[in-house]
Amino acid sequence: MNLDRPQHAGAGPGGAAINAVDLVKTYPGDVRALDGIGLNVEAGTIFGLLGPNGAGKSTTVKILTTLSRADSGTAHVMGVDVARQPDRVRRMIGLVGQHGAVDSEATGRENLILQGHLYGMGGAALRRRVDELLARFGLTDAAGRIVKTWSGGMQRKLDVASGLIHQPRVLFLDEPTTGLDPEARADLWAEVQRLSAEGLTILLTTHYLEEADRLAGQVAIIDRGKIVARGTPDELKSELRGDAIVVELRDSVRDGHASAVLELLDGVHDPSISGRTLRARADDGARSVPTVLAALDAAGIGVASVTVARPSLDDVYLRHTGRAYRPESQEATR
Ligand code: ADP
User: Fold this and answer.
1) Would you say 237 and 212 are in contact if contact means Cβ atoms under 8 Å apart?
2) pLDDT-derived band of residue 325, with 50, 70 and 90 as boundaries?
3) What is the pTM of this model?
4) Mutate to test the pocket of ligand 1, among 35, 39, 50, 58 (most ligand atoms within 8 A of CB)
5) Domains of the chain, each with CATH number or no CATH
6) Is the CB of residue 328 below 6 angstroms from any atom belonging to ligand 1?
7) 315-329 burial by CB neighbour count: b if 16+ within 10 A, else e?
8) Quick one: which atom of ligand 1 is closest to the CA of 222?
């Protein structure tokens, strides 16, 4: 497909709102931040970009939002080449960065009006749009107060509202819920889902795998400038062999005895024991439970409880990057 042909501002190749091919970016000092990244984000969907610190997520977002240029490769947003027509791209996208861009000494309403002015909006149309956004995010009552008196969750909503002032077709959200308490996070998730349901395309980077799992139709895991896994969260999880079975034993047993019992069962793999917790993977967790319990019973090993869990995105992440997912914000407190 010739991606260099003149583009119209509809969805790009194959209905893609965002399409990137073979993006390479090297920083001074021979840091290869991107080493051939390709992405395809269907219009109206939420796409999650995951990866450890330094993987290349921000660099990818910067190129797609025209803030940086790739050394090679191409990227289109709504069919428009980000390198050739950055101004057109900027009018179609909203960017909500990690460190909110709002002025905390101004009121909520003033912030949105200022943001509108930056996009050349004004007059009654802008006032209407500001009222609409304030109402939509439940910020109308607070709109006249300066933003530093607002809660973190409200400030984050204002960031998102600012990114939407000019009615973009594609919204980039860089770690939208970092630092929010669980309630504010859930609230923002609901808002993001509503925006998506209304047809907005959203690319989100996140530190929280649960967030990607809940929100994103497709995710890509990026590591050292390359995409190492992509698919729906369920597809990625189903690539891992089987479910996790976790058995809490009533008493500690002789080392290796309980796992040796499970070794013999068909469809059950990788048993391991730690204290009274016996773990294994099973091709079909729910169907294996009766067999596992019967085998343990026959061996005289008492069971307190058993749970079956589908593999999580954390397991997927571990497999593809070789390390557990540790957001820096958590690392700092560990
Ligand atoms: P992420 O967003 O996944 O944490 P980044 O895209 O910020 O990753 O960084 C990718 C790599 O590029 C890292 O090795 C980082 O140190 C490097 N890098 C990012 N920005 C710059 C810059 N302006 N100058 C030099 N190196 C940079």
Assistant:
1) no
2) low
3) 0.79
4) 58
5) 13-236 (3.40.50.300), 241-310 (3.30.70.100)
6) no
7) bbbeebbeeebeeee
8) 3
Residue 60 CA to ligand 1 centre (angstroms): 10
Mean pLDDT of 275-302: 90
Other C-beta atoms within 10 Å of 48: how many? 25
The pLDDT score that the predictor gives to residue 144 is 97
Strand ordering across the sheet containing 243-249: 268-274, 277-282, 243-249, 303-309
**Identity of the amino acid at 262:** L
Of ligand 1's listed atoms, the one at least distance from the Cα of 25 is: 12
| Residue of 24, 25, 27, 64 to mutate, ligand 1, most atoms within 8 A of C-beta | 27
326 CA distance to ligand 1 middle (Å): 18
Q: What is the DSSP letter of 200?
A: -
69 Cα: distance to centroid of ligand 1 (angstroms): 14
Element (H, E) at 205: strand 201-205
Q: Tens of pLDDT along 293-315?
A: 999 999 999 999 999 987 777 77
Contact 300, 309 (CB under 8 A): no
Tokens linked to 207: 């530190």
pLDDT in tens, 40-98: 999 999 999 998 888 999 999 999 999 999 999 999 999 999 999 999 999 999 999 87
For ligand 1, the distance from its centroid to the CA atom of residue 214, given in whole angstroms, is: 27
